[in-house]
Amino acid sequence: MKDEEYKAWEHEMETIRAENKILLDEFEIWLKGKNLKSKTINSHISNIDFYINGFLLHYDTVKAEDGATSIGWFLGDYFIRKACWSSKYTIKENIASLKKFYSFMTEIGKTSKENLTEMMDIIKEESEDWITAVETYLDNLDRL
């Protein structure tokens, strides 16, 4: 990568990170409006931060508003391998967080209802596969 290309990429990353910070702050306010417990809110924020800043931003420089349909690869592979805390429970927890986040994103007009519907369909069709994948992965780690 040439120096100017790298600087442009770095600038794009910084811009998206700043946008993500604003989105996470707004999402937190939205969650508080749903009367959720602080622990639950913090869990959702942490899960979404990992998704939008750890996964979307570093693998393909995708903005949060364009990431609703990338959850299959995230929960079926990336999260399982990269998050040492991955488990059946955390897969389900991330599904809940992603549903809430993209419902919020739809509500504020940052993503379309079609993307939210497609994400929900992906969850319906693939969630059992993700749970099986994490259980298989953890079983194989136990055998090492």
Explain what you see:
- The protein is mainly alpha-helical and 144 residues long.
- Helix content is 80%, strand content 0%.
- It has helices at 3-32, 38-59, 71-82, 88-107, 113-143.
- The protein is globular, with a radius of gyration of 16 Å.
The poorly predicted ranges are: none
Strand content: under 5%
Can you count the helices? Answer: 5
Radius of gyration, in angstroms, nearest whole number? 16 Å
Percent helix, as a range, is: over 70%
| Intertermini distance | 38 Å
Per the principal axes of the C-alpha atoms, what is the gross shape?
globular
**Protein structure class:** mainly alpha
| Overall number of strands | 0
What letter string, H or E per element, gives the SSE order?
HHHHH
How would a textbook summarize the main sheet?
Answer: none
Number of domains: 1
The average pLDDT is 94
